Amino acid sequence: MSRSLVQPVGQKRLTNVAVVRLKKFGNRFEIACYKNKVLSWRSGVEKDLDEVLQSQIVYSNVAKGVLAKSSDLKAAFGSDDQAKICLEILEKGELQVAGKERESQLSNQFRDIATIVMQKTINPETQRPYTISMIERLMHEIHFAVDPHSNSKKQALDVIRELQKHYPIKRSPMRLRLTLPKPNIDALEGKLSEWNTVIFSKDESASNFSIVCELDPGFFRDCDALVRNLLGRSEILAISVHGEGDIHADHYDGHEDVSSSESKKPAEPSIVELSEKMQKQTMAPKEDNNEGQVKQKICSTCDAVVGDAKQYREHFKSDWHKQNLKRKTRELPPLSAEECLADEELSDSKKDLNEYSF
After folding, report:
1. Are strands 27-33 and 304-307 parallel, antiparallel or unpaired?
2. What kind of architecture, by CATH, is found in domain 172-265?
3. 83, 219, 323, 341: least surrounded by Cβ within 10 Å?
């Protein structure tokens, strides 16, 4: 009985890889990468290119193992140096992800945008922020669609503008201290009245006059420019003021566009409050193990006790754990909950300043 011969396949099929695709001059070029490494490379966490690329070869179809033609590479990139072309595709190409992964990414980004909107807005009647679930519902009602290629904070500001057209919502005010010479105070007070600014206190010294006030963030740039022209200085006491508390920003190194005053170190009470909030969300209190008590789990990455099995799973989704994972890849020691949150709050505050005004 004759048997059919199995002919070898002349294609090298690559499966279970992350594909980065770039379309140029009507042709499609792809490179095969390791999963979860492309984003690490683009964020600057991963530096070794060999850890990102499966091979420095350009394909026209990675799944079928079809290589790109040299003539197409020269026409599109002006060269057939595959190493340089791989770098360009890695930087500019689109990462191909499965449907479920894309849905998960969009869902997480939608939640991040809603969180930013909640932090930056208040109900004008109660002077308190809306709940995260209410913000998400309002975003669905205005048919907001997440743009995965755009910054979450920029999209959050766009959402706020759109929500203000339909619902009672406004930006939470900034708290400022404005200091300038006495002869120029009248010009400043006239503008503050025009901007509907709430003045809390006035302090007069030998030659200067100081005002503590709450200002709509949309007028901050104009206000800071006016104070500079009047030979004064502005100091941010709180980026976002809510009825139930403030979100502080006490340290702004290198932000000459924001304040001409000297930078301050983070205030200890604010860091303590933030750390307590993080511990409630991600960490169970350390207690002596008594009989009948649920066994506490330890996260080796963060070097901390994180509670029972449910809290342990939630901990892996926290920013604290994610930041320590990045530090671990760079062989840095883990941060505590207080250090992590203080670092994030400081970093976010600096980035917000250039995006805060409409």
Report:
1. unpaired
2. 2-Layer Sandwich (3.30)
3. 83
Greater confidence, 35 or 290? 35
Which residue ranges make up each domain of the chain? Answer: 18-96, 99-170, 172-265, 273-350
> Which architecture does CATH list for 99-170?
Orthogonal Bundle (1.10)
What is the distance between the alpha carbons of residues 30 and 89, in angstroms, rounded to a whole number? 8
SS (HEC) of 205-265: CCCEEEEEEEECHHHHHHHHHHHHHCCCEEEEEEEEEECCEEEECCCCCCCCCCCCCCCCC
216 vs 208: CA distance, rounded Å: 24
Average pLDDT taken over every residue of the chain: 76
Q: Domain 18-96, what fold?
A: 3.30.1250
pLDDT band per the 50, 70, 90 thresholds, residue 58: very high
Alpha helices (runs of H) in 21-120, residue ranges in sequence order: 38-43, 70-77, 82-92, 99-120
Burial class (CB in 10 A: 0-12, 13-18, 19+), 299: buried
HSE (CB half, 13 Å, CA atoms) of 261?
20
Distance of CA 337 to the CA centre of its chain: 18
- The model's confidence at residue 14, banded by pLDDT at 50, 70 and 90, is low
> Which structure tokens are listed for 226?
């006016």
Percentage of the chain beyond pLDDT 90 is 4
